[in-house]
Amino acid sequence: MKVLIVDDEIRLVDGVRKYFEQAGFQVSAAYDGPSGLQKALNEKPDIVVLDLMLPGMDGLDVCREIRRRSDMPIIMLTARVEEADKLVGLELGADDYMTKPFSPRELVARARTVLRRTAPQKSAGGVPDKPQIMIFGDFSFDIGAHQIVRGERVESLTPTEFDLLYVLVSHKHQVLSRSQLLEAAGLGAFEGVEKTIDVHMHNLRRKLEPDPTHPKYVLTVFGVGYRFTDEVA
């Protein structure tokens, strides 16, 4: 697995690099926004660790540009403590965030968690399972390809969006709380702000719903959480 670390703090990058290398990762690094974006698009790493505050081009813009062209997992780093700053990164498609200062071991653990969610599921014989497609209303959910397909329109899902949609359709018509969804997306051990689920759901609805402002598949159950339905009138 290859990780790209984009941060202008050279000492931080060198320290984090050692932990990733000890964990068996191949590590690439960039120290400003433009070169980080270029490396992400050219080298196509398995996961990107991206600082929010970068020279030349900030991390939010880098994240936005990566998401326009790729669904590679992104973990954002931020020295800001305001919840709004963290949620903006999630709105742009980041899968997780960590607030500085942080434990390099925890960062590696989070990266592994995200990557486990992106790895193809295999059968007992070690052969990838046959891709499964589930049909709901006017769209299909391609589980093998991590995509939503509606007519000729294809929307790729980030790992977090995929996990959330998968657990919702697997528990069709059941109400799932935000904490249950956090756990299902592999974020329960790390995230203390359940509002992050609302941000991810907002992103998922933009890809799934014909009209995200009036969702007909992923419904909010106020005060509780969300449920999925395909009983569309």
> Number of folding domains?
2
CATH class of the largest domain: Alpha Beta
CATH architecture assignment of the largest domain: 3-Layer(aba) Sandwich
Strand order of the largest sheet: 2-1-3-4-5
The best one-word shape is globular
Give the topology string: H per helix, E per strand.
Answer: EHEHEHEHEHEEEEHEHHEE
Strand content: 15-25%
Structure description:
This protein has helices at residues 10-22, 33-43, 59-69, 83-91, 104-118, 159-170, 178-184, 195-208, and strands at 2-6, 26-30, 47-51, 74-78, 96-99, 133-136, 139-142, 147-150, 153-156, 176-177, 218-221, 225-228. By secondary structure, it is α/β, with parallel strands linked by helices. A five-stranded parallel sheet has the order 2-1-3-4-5, sandwiched between helices. Helix 3 (59-69) links the parallel strand 3 and strand 4. Helix 1 (10-22) crosses helix 5, helix 2 runs parallel beside helix 3 (59-69) and helix 6 crosses helix 8 (195-208). The longest helix is centred in the middle third of the chain and has 15 residues, at 104-118. Residues 121-128 have low confidence and may be disordered.
Topology:
Layout: E1 2-6, H1 10-22, E2 26-30, H2 33-43, E3 47-51, H3 59-69, E4 74-78, H4 83-91, E5 96-99, H5 104-118, E6 133-136, E7 139-142, E8 147-150, E9 153-156, H6 159-170, E10 176-177, H7 178-184, H8 195-208, E11 218-221, E12 225-228
Parallel strand pairs: 1-2, 1-3, 3-4, 4-5
Antiparallel strand pairs: 6-7, 7-8, 8-9, 10-12, 11-12
Helix pairs in contact: 1-5, 2-3, 6-8
